[in-house]
Amino acid sequence: MVFSKEAGSSSYSLPPYPREDTPLLGKAPALSSNPKTFANIFISIVGAGVLGLPYSFKRTGWLMGLLMLFSVAFLTYHCMMLLVLTRRKLESLTGFTKITSFGDLGFTICGPVGRFAVDVMIVLSQSGFCVSYLIFISSTLAFLTNNETTPVFLGFTPKVLFLWACFPFQLGLISVRTLTHLAPLSIFADVVDLVAKSVVMVEDVFVSVKNRPDLKVFGGLSVFLYGIGVAVYAFEGIGMVLPLESEAKDKEKFGRVLGVGMGSISVLFGLFGGLGYFAFGEETKDIITTNLGAGVISFLVQLGLCINLFFTFPIMMNPVNEVMERRLCGSRYCLWLRWLMVLVISLVALLVPNFADFLSLVGSSVCVVLSFVLPAMFHLIVFKDELGWSCFVWDGAIVVFGFVIAVTGTYTSVMEILSPTS
Known about the structure:
Elements: H1 34-45, H2 53-60, H3 62-94, H4 102-110, H5 112-144, H6 158-174, H7 183-211, H8 224-234, H9 241-247, H10 254-280, H11 296-328, H12 335-351, H13 355-382, H14 389-418
Domain Amino acid transporter transmembrane: 32-414
GO molecular function, one term: L-amino acid transmembrane transporter activity
Main location: membrane
């Protein structure tokens, strides 16, 4: 392990380039209270993935969907704590206190290979999030125009035209050198997102009382991998757990705060997914907002979610920019590389027909590796000499489970996307 030789030196430090935990509002305060830590956990995890949960519940059945959702939440929390415990162990052994990100931890344990593994997973997962944002925005705007499939200009459908209409604006936003300048837009987007999702849940309650559709409890084992992928995507936020723990004022209570946060988010996700499915049953669409009826409120909700994801796109691209510029441009700002990444992500979004299917693909591939495989593997390496057989088996089981889900889930999701009925 790298820390056994180099990290023990008092003069040793990681390269001073920005990392994926670069704070949005400039230099973050050294310490955060428990309520602030809770709020940061909430913001870091709740994202666009929740919008695909009702459709996932339709595929898996509501009870199976809930069981999978809570199981993934517990396993994600466990792996987050594995990262925290691993970092604390390294710091207690070496006095090395510069491990502030997932990438730093990978470098400290496995050297350049460890950082490379984390970097690849972060680039793929963050890029996947951005692809899903573009799919949601273009699909929702096309739905609002009541014309999702009919070509209207040069043979292009409204969905394609809306996606390319976003392209020049995203090039402009991605060109901003520092996230500090995007902070007001991010805060605005978060407020709009919270209000919009709250309205969707209230609307679902009224619709479910009126419609009372037929519901299925279990969808069968054939959709197990699909549901796992969507659930893992929804809870993706493990890359922020080490920065958040570093900033926590009461580190002894961080695990409890994280547990309360994950539990609260699980309940919220379960309600959102369940209410959406209970409202529309087998008519539930891959983007739940497209099930909402006509009217000003429905229009504003869907437009608000599009605005949220539009302004969140450059924030989510920041880790990708950091990794790519560090590895290809010596950590220097590179405009053409940023624009190239936006182009690639836009092209991928054009090829994916279904929002929820893509969530499952990203969740069951890179997010599984990032959330389960790497944390358990790093914990196993650092604690290998003091783990009991039960803990050793538990860590090993998580690694094996993650690899199996990543391989089989990726294959299943790709087949779903390529299916003619997708």
